[in-house]
Model the fold of this input.
Amino acid sequence: MKLGLWPAKTKERRATVLAGLILLQGVSALFFIGDVILDFREDGHLDNPHLLLESIAAVALVSGVIFLMIELRGLMSRMSDMQTGLDIAHGHMAAIVGEFFDEWNLTQAERDVALMILKGLDNDAIARVRNTASGTVRAQATSIYAKSNSDGRAQFISLFVEELIAGNERLAQGA
Done:
């Protein structure tokens, strides 16, 4: 299960529920408005308690529809803004990774191994994915740590986390 996708699906579900409520309230409002108009044609007076109550219900439903439409629009806008932010963060992370790898002069094989380290794979898993021996992956990882001046996996990963937390001045200076 991908945990990163769960909140997005929840937000989409919420937007769908809101749209359904808007539709239901809209249909109910049309019914009450139609009923009020028919009753008013027959009676011609708004002093009838039943007609007054239906009029109030119709106004409340129309108000609810308008409110929910505004709320749904805001929700959709926030979802769009969050997706844009995620896309930007993804792009920045790719740029940060590429910049570091270039700076450290990693070979293509080392880049592949380094990316898998960043994704959280251990050496044995990396070896299986790349169809190489575990010893080869260990040697490549050792080379990556030496080129990045890090003491191991945790410190290597922390280089990227620190860069993201710091707001990545490297990209800001390059832009």
The chain has seven helices and no strands. The chain has two domains: 8-84, 104-175.
